[in-house]
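B., you asked whether I could sanity-check this one before it goes into the benchmark set. Here's the sequence:
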Amino acid sequence: MSPQKRRGEVQPQGQIRQSQIVTTFGPGAMVDLPDHAVIISGLDAWTGYQNQPITEERLAAKVKALLGLNSVRFYAPPADIDDPTAPLTGITAWLFPEWFVAQSEERNSATGVRSRPLVHRLDLEKGLKYRRERREKAVKVVPVRFVQACTRGHVSDIDWRVFVHGKENQCSRFLWLDEKGTTGDLTDVFVRCECGQSKALSAATKKDDVPLGYCNGPRPWLGKYARERCGKGEQTPQLNRLLVRAASNSYFAQTLSVISIPEPGGKLRQAVDEVWEDFLQYCESQTDVGKERKKAKVSVALERLRDADVWSEILRRKGGGPPAVKGIREAELETLLQSPDEVGEDQPDGEFYAKTVAVPGGEPTLTASIARLVKVHRLREVIAQVGFTRFEAAVPDVNGELALEVERAALSLTQEWFPAIENRGEGVFIGFKTEAVDAWRKRSAVQARGVQLLGGFSAWQQAHQATKATFPGLPYIMLHTVSHLLITAVALDCGYAASSIRERIYVGESGYGILLYTASPDAEGTLGGLVAAADKLDRYLRQAVDLGALCSNDPVCAQHQADNRQEDRLLLGAACHGCVLLAESSCERRNDYLDRALVVPTVDNTGAAFFDDVDA
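And here's what the prediction gave me:
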């Protein structure tokens, strides 16, 4: 990325992985580079992305329906090019925030208060240095840690003079940032004016006051003149809230992901994909298809395909394609459940290659509920970012669908395309018998446990009224917990770290299942270790239930009540970092909706375990 140069600045450089841009540091994200703090620009200021188109029709159909667009294109974030003669590519980053703390301090030995100048960018010299008096030596500055934002994604600098004095006082004297001790607690941080007035930063967090005022819709990542009204229609602007730039709640990328699955006509679409951007999108008739075949690249891509079939596919694409009838997860689950049996020495072919194998019989009491075991030798995952939020994350529901009610911040002014990445990997799919799950959920002990978990979710909803999340249901929580336990067990000897294994939980009318998979832009996601884990599934299930039966934090963990409002664990049952919580790169629900008691008997045996006879 290349931060934009303005008055009083240098031109810094930095690099971020393509996958990080889509999931962590996308447009609107605040990033600390080695020498500067910046905000990643909107898509309108990216260059060189046209060289890496990504095609995935099911995902495009979902995004079109979600945002009400006529067409959608995906491109990978522009990669760095080593050739000095090539056109400039990269992602612009704007300097943000524009208030700084000078690294020149005055310390009061009596009170222990450390005071440093709080200055604006316009008061700085070249090279981002500050000098109050001409005879003084210029000192370095660091960006202030605090900004103001709202849940709709708007963000801006705090007007520190108004914060200290109020709107009526026009005092313009020098500002200081005073800090007591070393904890950085907001009650120990004060903004002081040389006129004598000061205010603690903790005042900015009071909900019964309006210390930072109402949001007026600033969008600095989209440019200087991209401000919008905060709120749509009759909605009122939100109150600005204090935000620490580096806090984990400063940016939540809203992403949708799909596993590319074979569909009728898949080979034709894949062939057209290869030459669509450069050649076929310009065809106006079937005759033009024949003319394009004279070009070497087109000839190779369309080998053995009839012009009439290719032209039909072109017409379909230009017409917008068929609407996506099935949900993202529903289509994937049906494909996995219909995977053909493994026969002979079949060689993996194409983007998706999955074969059904026999379930190992070493642990019959544990594997009796498994209906299908599938080795996914090859898979392709496409992840696209469609927006972002601050303060509250809006994750897809159990069917992989983003909530339409969530007001997301825009990635660009035009929304002509969206950043995406494609990962390739391998995996293992475990399909559970529908009758076994349905019989389990009807048990009285399971329903009683469900009342507790639902109570915790209701309490969480009251504390997060801006979200539109719905309770995922007990089958999801049970399978989600089984998935976490299996990831821990499999990671011990499959060759992948637990943080490199990801999950997709399938709960719906088509059935129940878990897909554990790896996905990486390079070959490291297809080493074969996870596919081979299917041959030892019985052993891994045994290890998983043993891991879940006893936690190092028991009995406290096992006896945790989800509806206990005194603890900030309202979406968790018997679950903690000592047992089932994983790295967030593995979990599709940010480590929420987990409960060991729904999987295996714990020390606080509730009778709700799916595997209720683990010692047999």
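One thing to flag: The mean pLDDT is 86. Otherwise nothing jumped out at me.
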